[in-house]
Every structure is written in C-alpha cells, then in structure tokens.
Specification:
Blueprint lengths: L7 H7 L23 H16 L4 H9 L5 H15 L4 H5 L8 H13 L2 H55 L8 H15 L1 H19 L2 H11 L3 H24 L4 H11 L3 H15 L5 H6 L5 H13 L2 H57 L1
C-alpha cells in the first residue's frame, strides 16, 4: 500500500506530515519559521539537553529556558510546552501542537527518546543534525550571493541606461536614424517601449508571475517542476545529490533513533521536497510493508549511482543501514560543497564577461552615433 493511500485516520492520529516546496529555503529540514528562527530552537533544544544532564526535571528546565528567550511568540510556545508537561503530557505530544515550529522529523526522534529513556541523548543528536543542516544551507546561500549580486547589478545598469540615458539622446539620434547601428536602433526601440508603456510591462509581469505561481502550487505544477529539476542537464546532478543527501540524512537519523521503518518512511516522504523522490519513498514503503527489502526500489531507481545502491543493499543485509545512511549523507554534503565551489568558480568570470559585454555594447551604441552626429555637424 502506498503512503498516499494509508488510512487517513492512522495518519491523523500519529503524524501531521507537511511538504517542503522551496528550493533554497527548503534544502534542509527546517525546525523554525520566519517568526521563530532555527537558531532560537537550536538554543532551546541544546539548553534543554544541558539542563536534563544536570538532573533538572523536564518541566522546570523548560520554565527556566523560557525566561531566556527574547522572542515573545516562541517564549509563549515554550511556556505552553511547560504547562503541558506539568499536566502529564509527553514533550513530543506537546510539540505536535505547533507543526509550523517543530518538524515531524524531530518530534518523532524526541518521542523515540522518551519511549527508550534516552531523551537527553536524542536532544543532543537533534542539535548536531540541525547544525549540519544550517551549515549546509549557509554554504549554498554563500555560493549564490555573489552571482546573484552580479546579475542584479547588471540588470539594474542596463535598465538605468535604457530608461534614463537613452531618452536624452533619442531626439538627437533621430536626425541620423538611417545610419545608426542596429544595436542602437534596438536599444532606442526598447527605451521607447519602457518609457511609454512601463505600466503595461508591470501589469504583464504581475500577471505572468501570478499565473506561474498558481500553476506551481498545483499538484501538476509541483510534479512538473520537480521533474524538470531532475532533467535539466546542468542542474540534474546537483539536485539529485541534494535529494539523495536529504533522504539519507532524514531516514538514517530516524532509523538511528529507533523510529520504526514504516513511520520513518512516512515522515521522509512528507519532508523530502520532491514529488519524484516522494514516489520513490512510496515504493519503498510498499516494498517494506509487503515483506520485501527497502533497497529494492532504490536499486531500480535511475537516480542512485551503482555504488550507492550496492552500499544500501549491503547495509540492509548486514543490519547497518542506520550507520550507512548518515555516512552517505555526509559524503554527498561534501560533494555538493565541492561542486558548488566549481560552479561558482566558473560562473563568476562568465557573468563578469557577459555583464561587461552587455554594458560595452550599450556604451558603444551610444558613442558611435555621437561621433557620427559630431562629424555631420562639422
């Protein structure tokens, strides 16, 4: 039975599975929202682990930590957790009331720690896992900052010249329009369009953005975009590595935390962030539920390298999947970081050359007509 067809009652009573749909912000299993930052929750979990190690009761630990939290919204959430603990509820059950703050991955790990009597160790494991996640997304953001800045700067310069500079020379160039270079004519036409119909351009861009957004948020749009990520030649390998790393990290962490395999697969399917890989996890769930191997669907998948398929198959045969998967995730994280450095090393000079070329063409398109106009006057 696929995960998507599991009885709704069973899902509602155990897990509230949400989907990560953003490419850069969704590259890790975030435990915070815009109002409650991941760093604040890492601080909370880290301090909670420390206080439990000193022998402080759970409810008093949460109350003490709440006094150190500056974020009003998060402080109220933590205080509510403390009240639930005093009423006899489990920490994992109390956290499940705030799915927009606490990820199902970490809630399930905490529940496993509570059941097994090693909550402190599980909290420490969550802190390490989330710190790795934040380091990973910081690496990706850092690699993209400079190329994005160059691109925005180049577009801004071009728009400034077209909208502000060219109109000042338009009336002058009309006298020698027939002798103007082609690039100058194109830029003059573009300038006239931007200056005269800027409001229509804004309306068109707004409609296009809205239409694209409405398509992307549909199931069909999500499947299309997720499939496209795994097919574009220059991006395919990069996204495949990201999703494999995420799957290995989440699934390995849950299995290491003694979360049952089927529940681990259910949670992983909800947070993997790609419909194609969600379908793969569905197949893994069906295989395990039918008494077959977890590695079977992975072996049949075209996205996993042969060496990875062999390692997962061997890990399953030897009962060491909980050790193999985190190591594979570490390997892919480092490989992604190396690939990002190579991409940015190539991208930066290419962007500089393109930006210089575009601006150079624009400048020449201005200077040449001015020289022609000067000669005609003399």
């Amino acid at each position: 039975m696929a995960i998507s067809t599991i009885e709704t009652k069973k899902l509602d009573s155990n897990w509230s599975i949400s989907e990560i749909v953003k490419t850069i912000q969704g590259l890790t299993v975030r435990i915070g929202t815009g109002k409650v930052r991941p760093g604040e929750i890492i601080f909370f979990i880290d301090q909670l682990s420390l206080m439990l190690e000193t022998g402080t009761p759970l409810n008093k630990s949460i109350q003490a930590i709440s006094l150190q939290i500056k974020n009003n919204e998060f402080r109220e959430i933590v205080q509510d957790l403390g009240r639930d603990i005093e009423e006899g509820r489990m920490l994992s059950d109390a956290m499940r009331k705030y799915p927009h703050v606490f990820s199902n991955v970490y809630i399930s790990m905490i529940r496993a720690g509570e059941s097994g009597g090693f909550l402190k160790e599980m909290l420490e494991r969550i802190v390490v896992l989330e710190e790795r996640n934040q380091e990973f997304i910081s690496t990706i953001k850092g690699a993209l900052y400079y190329p994005v800045f160059l691109s925005i700067f180049a577009v801004s310069v071009v728009l400034f010249i077209i909208v502000y500079v060219f109109p000042k020379f338009g009336s002058m160039f009309e006298e020698i329009y027939d002798s103007l270079p082609l690039t100058t004519r194109i830029l003059m036409a573009s300038s006239n369009v931007f200056v005269s119909y800027w409001y229509l351009i804004i309306i068109f861009l707004g409609i296009a953005w809205f239409a694209a957004y409405k398509f992307i948020v549909t199931d069909k749009g999500k499947i299309y975009m997720d499939t496209l990520k795994l097919r574009v030649p220059l991006l395919k390998d990069f996204f495949v590595k990201i999703y494999i790393s995420r799957l290995m990290r989440i699934l390995g962490s849950l299995m290491t935390s003694n979360v049952p395999v089927l529940e681990s697969l259910s949670i992983s399917a909800g947070v993997i962030g790609n419909k194609v890989f969600t379908k793969l996890i569905d197949n893994m769930y069906t295989s395990v539920e039918g008494g077959k191997t977890l590695s079977g669907p992975i072996t049949e998948s075209p996205y996993f390298p042969q060496t990875i398929k062999q390692m997962i198959s061997t890990g399953e045969d030897t009962g060491t999947l909980d050790k193999v998967m985190p190591r594979l995730a570490d390997y892919y994280d480092k490989d992604i970081e190396r690939q990002l450095k190579k991409i940015t090393a190539v991208m930066e000079p290419i962007l500089l050359v393109i930006m210089g070329g575009v601006i150079g063409v624009i400048v020449i398109s201005l200077i040449v007509p001015i020289f022609k106009l000067t000669r005609s006057i003399h």
